[in-house]
Amino acid sequence: MSAIEERFDNATVERQETWTKFVISLIQKQIRCLDELAFVPEFVPIRYMNWIRGSQNDEPTGFIRLYVPELKANRFPTRLRVYGEAVSIQKIRKRQQIVVCFKCHGFHATRTYAQSTKCQNCGTDAHEGPCQKSPLCLNCRGPHSSTDTSCPARPKRVNRVHVRPTGTQLKQIRIAGKREFSKVTG
Question: Which superkingdom, per the lineage (predicted)?
Answer without folding.
Answer: Eukaryota
